[in-house]
Design a protein that fits this description.
heterodimer, A: about 400 residues, alpha/beta, D-Maltodextrin-Binding Protein, domain 2, 2 domains, 4-stranded mixed beta sheet, 17 helices, about 5% strand, elongated, B: about 375 residues, abc type-2 transporter like fold
């Protein structure tokens, strides 16, 4: 037992040389992830003070119904909380699109309104870049579909009236204009079709709270990379020697693992405790973290131990499996990014199909995320502790088996 | 000829150094498998927003029809049909749904009242949410677009019946037949295109949002491979493995060393792209990858030459990974000035796919990086740091 502690102490000393670098970079990483979290939550919040997508409008809109329509959309329509429309020339739009100042631009054909009045609708070109493709494009497609439906149905009404009048031998002129303006008012009033009730977040987490937990898991996953040069063993001759002198694989692995866990936890502990001290007010966009203090941070940091134990066991297994630095760093990165993605640390888990959701619950990052979400929400349950410790034991056993295999291989 | 043969021998030796490691090979094989698994799993039913649908009166044919229509087709919204409004609200309370849309009894009458008055007091669909988000706001556009045809038809009929005396002889059914007879075009009012006019973007909106970030993540993986090689190179250098090369020649040795490992990873990434569901054409993907490899070599070499220590570089890696995930348009474009995003190689790779201009930018940036690399290397030689 004494030997095991001595070995643990030596491992601590070895890793301590790297710790100041890792801690300093972790603090910067934490600030970056905090900024990302803030940006993501702000992008998702439906507040009125922020337009989410800037859309360029290219085409002659001056002195036409189109210009009036666009300004009406910008001042009266519910879409103004989501899309900001800015009129510009195509050259300007191209430049702004390349510089990332606008998400896309729509090119409206020259005689768009005149052709619409005569019953033929010319196509509007929606220009985007690959960098803007993703959720924004797919959502914009949904919105553009809605615009198409409204335009088509309104046309059916106006031209239905015209057709009926012509059949009866009358001219529809004045009535068509009046009906068109009624349709315009109906389009602007469409948001009043529904009345919204907000229940509040109750026992479940807010979007910000959820993403905080996700980012925390992602942060711990990434922290495995800087320890690669310390824990990846190119050869196991020292381990062989130690085993020959009576130090079992079990105590070797435990000694190394707990020194790794110690620094991972110390890293996280310092950062979590720094949150209320330096970022107390900045965290107000997360309802679950408003008004947190140092006492809460200490308690929270210690409650994170099961999650850190689990993730660091996974990272330790990766060190053990990796036979070289290149493979090790890449495996840590791939593991971090793949697990964070499918376990709902970068997107809410509800975005994914059931197959991915079910698998992620039994992956270390998924179990850790669920556990931290429960900690911040309505409290962790015994079942999640059992799941975490079962996974932890499995991962550490695999690491021991791998070490034993390497020692015995000549 | 002899020189080329020697270069190839060195490249083979460097490559062997990486490829003899089973862990590295296993990793290269795992990447395509993971991407394929994600592509298959992403085909399942999913949605960025889950909406529970319920009608207060299950026997109301109009409400049932609208619910069926709404639940019909959307790549982004997953709909769950509930027996009662209470069930729908329970799903929202339990965070199993993001919103509940509840349709009233006598829906036709309620639509009529709304079209007549068009204000908030006559709202007829109850929307229950836990917290409002932009996505829920956009999802509601789908609700409005499905209800709009009914509102439009009601507005048309009401307007004519109340204001157009010339048509008072027509029955309601006859009026509706005129409305239905209009074959207005506009189903494809918007045509998607890329800023590079030669590119067709008709498939842009049909993309799967789950596999959409895969290209970006794979391009990040290539850069991270470059940094991993940098750590390995620093370690090898410290162990004196390059001592038999003249100091002046070590720049080309270093370039070849980086190139070999990054090439192997890029090959695995190329295969992964084929399985990802976001593959373009072989010629285009190949060209991009062949230009991307030297770009990553140049970028990673420069960062590692500046850091010069495995401790510092190792600690920087998570930071660089996060910086690239956020700054490059991998998941979303956060609207940073393009000058900042163009520091990192993945931005060029992602944009160049649909904007040929960026292929030239990529080449120019690669040349710039190699000039900088050589400058740093020479400076280090002069100061005895290399």
């Amino acid at each position: 037992m004494k030997k095991a502690f001595v070995y643990f102490g030596l491992q601590l000393k070895r890793a301590a040389k790297y710790f100041p670098f890792i801690l300093a970079l972790s603090l910067i990483l934490c600030i970056c992830l905090g900024a990302v979290l803030g940006a993501v939550v702000k992008l998702d919040s439906a507040s009125e003070d922020k337009q989410k997508v800037t859309l360029g409008i290219v085409g002659d809109t001056e002195g036409s119904y189109l210009g009036f329509g666009i300004s009406a959309l910008q001042t009266l329509d519910s879409s103004r909380f989501v899309v900001e429309m800015v009129e510009m020339t195509e050259d300007e739009a191209k430049k702004k699109l390349e510089n990332g100042e606008i998400s896309a631009y729509a090119v409206i054909p020259e005689d768009f309104v005149d052709s619409a009045v005569s019953g033929e609708i010319k196509k509007i070109r929606y220009v985007t870049t690959d960098s803007a493709i993703g959720v924004t494009t797919v959502f914009m497609d949904e919105m553009l579909d809605a615009i198409s439906v409204m335009l088509v149905e309104s046309q059916k009404g106006v031209y239905g009236l015209q057709s009926a009048m012509w059949d009866k031998g009358y001219r529809a002129g004045n009535h068509m204009d009046k009906l068109a303006s009624e349709y315009f008012s109906l389009i602007l009033a469409r948001a009043y079709i529904s009345e919204q009730t907000e229940l509040g977040i109750s026992d479940e987490l807010s979007f910000g709270g959820y993403m905080f937990c996700g980012m925390l898991v992602f942060f711990v996953l990434l922290c495995g990379i800087p320890f690669c040069p310390v824990y990846i063993k190119k050869d196991v001759s020292l381990s062989r020697l130690m085993r020959a002198s009576g130090k079992s694989v079990f105590s070797q692995v435990l000694g190394e693992y707990f020194s790794f866990f110690f620094f991972m936890f110390a890293n996280l502990y310092i950062i979590v405790c720094a949150l209320p001290l330096f970022a107390g007010d900045a965290l107000s966009f997360i309802p679950e973290l408003s008004g947190v203090d140092l006492v809460w941070a200490q308690k929270f940091a210690f409650s994170l131990i099961p999650a850190v134990l689990l993730i660091s066991a996974l990272q330790f297994l990766v060190y053990e499996i990796s036979s070289g630095l290149v493979g090790g760093v890449l495996a840590q990165f791939l593991g971090a990014i793949a697990l964070a993605y499918v376990c709902g640390c970068l997107y809410p888990i509800n975005f994914f199909p059931d197959a991915i959701k079910n698998v992620s619950a039994f992956l270390p990052a998924g179990a850790a995320r669920e556990y931290i979400c429960a900690l911040i929400g309505d409290g962790a349950q015994a079942l999640s502790f059992i799941k975490i410790f079962a996974m932890f034991a499995l991962l550490l056993s695999l690491a021991m088996i791998k070490r034993r295999q390497r020692i015995l291989r000549f | 000829m002899e020189k080329i043969k020697r270069i190839f021998t060195f490249l083979t030796v460097f490559n062997k150094r990486f490829l003899k490691k089973p862990g590295f090979i296993a990793l290269l094989l795992v990447v395509p498998c993971l991407v394929l698994a994600l592509n298959i799993a992403s085909k399942g039913e999913s949605g960025m927003v889950t909406v529970a649908l319920a009608a207060k009166d299950k026997t109301d044919a109009l409400a049932a029809g609208i619910i069926d229509e709404i639940a019909g087709e959307s790549s982004l919204i997953r709909f769950i049909e509930c027996e009662t409004p209470e069930d729908a609200v329970k799903l929202v309370e339990g965070a199993d749904a993001d919103a509940a849309w509840i349709f009233p009894a006598d829906l036709a009458e309620k639509i009529d009242d709304f079209v007549e008055n068009r204000n908030r007091r006559f709202a007829f669909v109850e929307v229950v949410v836990r917290e409002d988000t932009v996505m829920l706001g956009l999802a509601r556009e789908r609700l409005y677009s499905v209800l709009y045809p009914y509102c439009s038809e009601t507005l048309y009929a009401n307007y004519i019946e109340r204001n157009v005396t010339e048509l008072e002889t027509l029955t309601h059914a006859e009026l509706i037949s005129y409305y239905d007879a209009i074959n207005a075009e506009g189903d494809d009012l918007f045509v998607f295109s890329y800023s590079d006019a030669s590119e067709d973007a008709s498939d842009a909106a049909d993309m799967n949002y789950i596999t959409a970030p895969v290209r970006g993540l794979l391009s990040l993986f290539v850069v991270m491979a470059g940094f991993a090689v940098a750590l390995f190179y620093i370690q090898d250098e410290r162990e004196g493995r390059f001592l038999h090369f003249a100091r002046k020649r070590r720049f080309s040795v270093m370039t070849g060393y980086y190139f070999c490992a990054i090439f192997d990873v890029a090959a695995a990434v190329f295969v992964s792209l084929i399985f990802s569901g976001v593959f373009s054409t072989v010629a285009k993907e190949l060209l991009l990858m062949l230009i991307y490899i030297p770009l990553c070599v140049g970028f990673c070499m420069l960062v590692s030459q500046i850091c010069a220590s495995s401790r510092l570089l190792g600690s920087l890696l998570p930071l660089l990974a996060v910086a690239m995930i956020v700054i490059c348009p991998v998941f979303f474009d956060i609207g940073l000035p393009r000058v900042i995003t163009l520091i990192f190689p993945p931005t060029y790779y992602l944009i160049a796919l649909h904007n040929t201009k960026f292929i030239f930018y990529m080449l120019a940036y690669t040349i710039f990086l190699f000039i900088c690399n050589f400058g740093v290397y020479r400076a280090k030689l002069r100061t005895n740091m290399a």
